[in-house]
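Aim 2, interim progress: modelling of the NAP-bound target.
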Amino acid sequence: MRGRGDHVEACARDPEGARELRALAGERVRLHRVDVTDATTVRSIADALGSVAVDVVFNVAGTYGGPRQSLAQLAEDLALEDVLRAYDVNARGALRLVLALLPHVRRGTAKRLVHITSGMGSISDNNSGGYLGYRMSKAALNMMSRTLAVDLRGEGITSVVVNPGWVQTDMGGPSAPTPVAESVRGILREVDRVTLADSGEFLNWDGSRSPW
Ligand SMILES: NC(=O)c1ccc[n+]([C@@H]2O[C@H](COP(=O)([O-])OP(=O)(O)OC[C@H]3O[C@@H](n4cnc5c(N)ncnc54)[C@H](OP(=O)(O)O)[C@@H]3O)[C@@H](O)[C@H]2O)c1
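Predicted structure of the complex, ligand included:
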Protein backbone atom coordinates (compact mmCIF):
# COMPACT_ATOMS: atom_id res chain seq x y z
CA MET A 1 0.00 0.00 0.00
CA ARG A 2 2.96 2.25 0.64
CA GLY A 3 4.04 1.70 -2.98
CA ARG A 4 0.62 3.05 -4.04
CA GLY A 5 1.20 6.27 -2.14
CA ASP A 6 -1.44 5.49 0.47
CA HIS A 7 -1.13 6.79 4.00
CA VAL A 8 -1.41 3.81 6.34
CA GLU A 9 -2.22 3.83 10.04
CA ALA A 10 -1.04 0.32 10.92
CA CYS A 11 -2.06 -1.45 14.12
CA ALA A 12 -0.15 -4.16 15.95
CA ARG A 13 -0.29 -5.55 19.45
CA ASP A 14 3.47 -5.20 19.75
CA PRO A 15 4.77 -2.58 17.28
CA GLU A 16 8.35 -2.88 18.62
CA GLY A 17 8.35 -6.62 17.95
CA ALA A 18 6.72 -6.29 14.50
CA ARG A 19 10.03 -6.17 12.61
CA GLU A 20 8.65 -6.17 9.03
CA LEU A 21 6.04 -3.56 9.86
CA ARG A 22 8.61 -1.37 11.61
CA ALA A 23 10.76 -1.45 8.48
CA LEU A 24 7.88 0.20 6.58
CA ALA A 25 7.26 2.91 9.18
CA GLY A 26 7.80 6.50 8.11
CA GLU A 27 5.93 9.53 6.93
CA ARG A 28 3.26 7.51 5.13
CA VAL A 29 3.10 4.53 7.49
CA ARG A 30 2.46 5.18 11.17
CA LEU A 31 2.34 2.42 13.76
CA HIS A 32 -0.11 2.19 16.65
CA ARG A 33 -0.26 -0.24 19.55
CA VAL A 34 -3.70 -1.83 19.31
CA ASP A 35 -5.13 -5.02 20.72
CA VAL A 36 -8.63 -5.33 19.29
CA THR A 37 -9.81 -7.11 22.45
CA ASP A 38 -8.80 -4.09 24.53
CA ALA A 39 -11.23 -1.18 24.28
CA THR A 40 -8.67 1.26 25.73
CA THR A 41 -6.11 0.65 22.99
CA VAL A 42 -8.79 0.78 20.29
CA ARG A 43 -10.02 4.08 21.71
CA SER A 44 -6.44 5.35 21.74
CA ILE A 45 -6.00 4.94 17.97
CA ALA A 46 -9.23 6.86 17.37
CA ASP A 47 -7.91 9.61 19.65
CA ALA A 48 -4.48 9.57 17.96
CA LEU A 49 -6.11 10.04 14.55
CA GLY A 50 -7.87 13.17 15.76
CA SER A 51 -9.66 14.80 12.82
CA VAL A 52 -7.93 12.65 10.18
CA ALA A 53 -10.24 11.23 7.48
CA VAL A 54 -9.99 7.49 6.86
CA ASP A 55 -10.93 6.08 3.45
CA VAL A 56 -10.69 2.36 4.20
CA VAL A 57 -10.70 0.43 7.46
CA PHE A 58 -9.19 -3.05 7.14
CA ASN A 59 -10.15 -5.52 9.85
CA VAL A 60 -7.34 -8.05 9.53
CA ALA A 61 -6.55 -9.24 13.08
CA GLY A 62 -7.55 -12.85 13.44
CA THR A 63 -6.97 -16.01 15.41
CA TYR A 64 -8.05 -19.64 15.34
CA GLY A 65 -8.64 -19.17 19.06
CA GLY A 66 -6.46 -22.13 19.99
CA PRO A 67 -5.29 -25.47 18.71
CA ARG A 68 -8.10 -27.48 20.31
CA GLN A 69 -10.97 -26.86 17.91
CA SER A 70 -12.46 -30.29 17.17
CA LEU A 71 -15.73 -31.50 18.65
CA ALA A 72 -13.96 -34.05 20.86
CA GLN A 73 -11.34 -31.60 22.12
CA LEU A 74 -13.85 -28.87 22.89
CA ALA A 75 -16.10 -31.36 24.71
CA GLU A 76 -13.32 -31.98 27.26
CA ASP A 77 -13.71 -28.48 28.66
CA LEU A 78 -17.16 -27.00 28.50
CA ALA A 79 -15.85 -23.54 29.36
CA LEU A 80 -15.08 -23.30 25.61
CA GLU A 81 -12.44 -20.64 26.19
CA ASP A 82 -10.96 -21.10 22.68
CA VAL A 83 -14.35 -20.45 21.13
CA LEU A 84 -14.69 -17.27 23.16
CA ARG A 85 -11.14 -16.16 22.23
CA ALA A 86 -11.82 -16.58 18.51
CA TYR A 87 -15.08 -14.67 18.83
CA ASP A 88 -13.46 -11.95 20.91
CA VAL A 89 -10.80 -11.18 18.28
CA ASN A 90 -12.49 -12.08 15.00
CA ALA A 91 -15.97 -10.72 15.60
CA ARG A 92 -16.16 -8.49 18.68
CA GLY A 93 -12.72 -6.97 18.02
CA ALA A 94 -13.66 -6.14 14.44
CA LEU A 95 -16.88 -4.44 15.53
CA ARG A 96 -15.00 -2.51 18.21
CA LEU A 97 -12.51 -1.14 15.65
CA VAL A 98 -15.28 -0.13 13.25
CA LEU A 99 -17.25 1.65 15.97
CA ALA A 100 -14.18 3.58 17.13
CA LEU A 101 -13.20 4.64 13.61
CA LEU A 102 -16.65 5.41 12.16
CA PRO A 103 -16.31 9.17 12.74
CA HIS A 104 -13.07 9.10 10.71
CA VAL A 105 -14.64 7.01 7.94
CA ARG A 106 -17.56 9.46 7.72
CA ARG A 107 -14.99 12.18 6.94
CA GLY A 108 -13.31 10.00 4.28
CA THR A 109 -13.91 9.91 0.54
CA ALA A 110 -13.98 6.17 -0.27
CA LYS A 111 -15.94 5.25 2.91
CA ARG A 112 -15.10 1.51 2.88
CA LEU A 113 -15.08 -1.08 5.64
CA VAL A 114 -13.23 -4.27 4.66
CA HIS A 115 -13.25 -7.27 6.95
CA ILE A 116 -10.91 -10.18 6.25
CA THR A 117 -13.06 -13.26 6.70
CA SER A 118 -12.43 -16.87 5.72
CA GLY A 119 -13.98 -19.49 3.50
CA MET A 120 -14.53 -21.25 6.86
CA GLY A 121 -17.06 -18.54 7.70
CA SER A 122 -19.30 -19.68 4.87
CA ILE A 123 -22.28 -21.69 6.14
CA SER A 124 -23.40 -23.12 2.80
CA ASP A 125 -19.83 -24.08 1.81
CA ASN A 126 -19.14 -25.96 5.05
CA ASN A 127 -18.89 -29.63 4.12
CA SER A 128 -15.73 -30.48 6.07
CA GLY A 129 -16.63 -29.44 9.64
CA GLY A 130 -14.08 -28.92 12.42
CA TYR A 131 -12.62 -25.61 13.64
CA LEU A 132 -15.84 -24.84 15.49
CA GLY A 133 -14.79 -21.64 17.26
CA TYR A 134 -13.05 -20.19 14.22
CA ARG A 135 -15.95 -20.97 11.89
CA MET A 136 -18.51 -19.55 14.33
CA SER A 137 -16.50 -16.35 14.80
CA LYS A 138 -16.06 -15.74 11.07
CA ALA A 139 -19.77 -16.40 10.44
CA ALA A 140 -20.45 -13.75 13.12
CA LEU A 141 -18.02 -11.39 11.37
CA ASN A 142 -19.88 -11.98 8.11
CA MET A 143 -23.18 -11.10 9.77
CA MET A 144 -21.59 -7.99 11.26
CA SER A 145 -20.50 -6.83 7.81
CA ARG A 146 -23.90 -7.45 6.26
CA THR A 147 -25.63 -5.58 9.07
CA LEU A 148 -23.23 -2.64 8.81
CA ALA A 149 -23.87 -2.59 5.06
CA VAL A 150 -27.59 -2.15 5.68
CA ASP A 151 -27.27 0.28 8.57
CA LEU A 152 -24.66 2.52 6.90
CA ARG A 153 -25.88 2.45 3.30
CA GLY A 154 -27.71 5.74 3.77
CA GLU A 155 -24.39 7.37 4.69
CA GLY A 156 -22.68 6.04 1.57
CA ILE A 157 -20.47 3.65 3.59
CA THR A 158 -19.65 0.28 2.00
CA SER A 159 -19.00 -2.81 4.11
CA VAL A 160 -17.70 -6.06 2.60
CA VAL A 161 -16.02 -9.25 3.80
CA VAL A 162 -13.11 -10.59 1.75
CA ASN A 163 -11.81 -14.16 1.90
CA PRO A 164 -8.01 -13.92 1.40
CA GLY A 165 -7.70 -17.52 0.20
CA TRP A 166 -5.34 -20.05 1.77
CA VAL A 167 -2.22 -17.92 2.26
CA GLN A 168 1.40 -18.55 3.26
CA THR A 169 1.23 -16.74 6.61
CA ASP A 170 1.83 -18.04 10.14
CA MET A 171 -1.81 -19.07 10.20
CA GLY A 172 -1.92 -20.54 6.71
CA GLY A 173 1.42 -22.33 7.03
CA PRO A 174 4.01 -23.14 4.36
CA SER A 175 1.73 -25.62 2.51
CA ALA A 176 -0.67 -22.85 1.54
CA PRO A 177 -0.76 -22.30 -2.23
CA THR A 178 -0.98 -18.51 -2.23
CA PRO A 179 1.94 -16.17 -1.44
CA VAL A 180 1.06 -13.22 0.80
CA ALA A 181 1.84 -10.61 -1.90
CA GLU A 182 -0.49 -12.31 -4.39
CA SER A 183 -3.38 -12.45 -1.93
CA VAL A 184 -2.82 -8.83 -0.86
CA ARG A 185 -2.73 -7.67 -4.50
CA GLY A 186 -6.02 -9.44 -5.14
CA ILE A 187 -7.63 -8.01 -2.01
CA LEU A 188 -6.54 -4.47 -2.92
CA ARG A 189 -7.86 -4.94 -6.46
CA GLU A 190 -11.24 -5.86 -4.99
CA VAL A 191 -11.20 -3.04 -2.47
CA ASP A 192 -10.40 -0.47 -5.18
CA ARG A 193 -13.21 -1.82 -7.35
CA VAL A 194 -16.09 -2.06 -4.88
CA THR A 195 -18.86 0.51 -4.83
CA LEU A 196 -21.91 0.93 -2.65
CA ALA A 197 -23.67 -1.54 -4.98
CA ASP A 198 -21.35 -4.28 -3.66
CA SER A 199 -21.96 -3.44 -0.01
CA GLY A 200 -22.89 -6.47 2.09
CA GLU A 201 -21.20 -8.92 -0.32
CA PHE A 202 -18.88 -11.86 0.47
CA LEU A 203 -15.91 -11.40 -1.89
CA ASN A 204 -12.91 -13.58 -2.62
CA TRP A 205 -9.37 -12.26 -3.13
CA ASP A 206 -9.38 -13.56 -6.73
CA GLY A 207 -12.40 -11.52 -7.80
CA SER A 208 -14.99 -14.28 -7.47
CA ARG A 209 -17.90 -14.26 -4.99
CA SER A 210 -18.25 -16.66 -2.10
CA PRO A 211 -21.49 -18.40 -1.16
CA TRP A 212 -22.85 -17.40 2.26
N1 LIG B 1 -3.67 -17.42 6.21
C1 LIG B 1 -4.78 -17.95 5.70
O1 LIG B 1 -4.73 -18.95 4.94
C2 LIG B 1 -6.11 -17.33 6.00
C3 LIG B 1 -7.24 -17.91 5.42
C4 LIG B 1 -8.48 -17.36 5.65
C5 LIG B 1 -8.59 -16.24 6.46
N2 LIG B 1 -7.47 -15.69 7.04
C6 LIG B 1 -7.66 -14.49 7.85
O2 LIG B 1 -6.74 -13.50 7.45
C7 LIG B 1 -6.44 -12.63 8.53
C8 LIG B 1 -4.95 -12.51 8.68
O3 LIG B 1 -4.48 -13.79 9.11
P1 LIG B 1 -3.00 -14.31 8.86
O4 LIG B 1 -3.08 -15.44 7.94
O5 LIG B 1 -2.09 -13.17 8.60
O6 LIG B 1 -2.76 -14.92 10.31
P2 LIG B 1 -1.53 -14.80 11.29
O7 LIG B 1 -0.30 -15.01 10.51
O8 LIG B 1 -1.83 -15.69 12.44
O9 LIG B 1 -1.62 -13.27 11.75
C9 LIG B 1 -2.71 -12.86 12.52
C10 LIG B 1 -2.48 -11.42 12.87
O10 LIG B 1 -3.56 -10.98 13.71
C11 LIG B 1 -2.99 -10.29 14.80
N3 LIG B 1 -3.82 -10.38 15.99
C12 LIG B 1 -4.24 -11.50 16.63
N4 LIG B 1 -4.96 -11.17 17.71
C13 LIG B 1 -4.98 -9.81 17.76
C14 LIG B 1 -5.54 -8.86 18.62
N5 LIG B 1 -6.24 -9.24 19.71
N6 LIG B 1 -5.38 -7.55 18.38
C15 LIG B 1 -4.67 -7.15 17.30
N7 LIG B 1 -4.09 -7.99 16.42
C16 LIG B 1 -4.24 -9.31 16.66
C17 LIG B 1 -1.65 -10.99 15.04
O11 LIG B 1 -0.83 -10.15 15.79
P3 LIG B 1 0.44 -10.73 16.62
O12 LIG B 1 1.54 -10.69 15.62
O13 LIG B 1 0.57 -9.74 17.73
O14 LIG B 1 0.10 -12.10 17.08
C18 LIG B 1 -1.17 -11.19 13.62
O15 LIG B 1 -0.55 -10.03 13.12
C19 LIG B 1 -7.13 -13.24 9.75
O16 LIG B 1 -8.35 -12.57 9.99
C20 LIG B 1 -7.40 -14.68 9.34
O17 LIG B 1 -8.49 -15.24 10.02
C21 LIG B 1 -6.24 -16.21 6.83
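DSSP finds six helices and six strands in the chain. The chain has one domain: 52-204.
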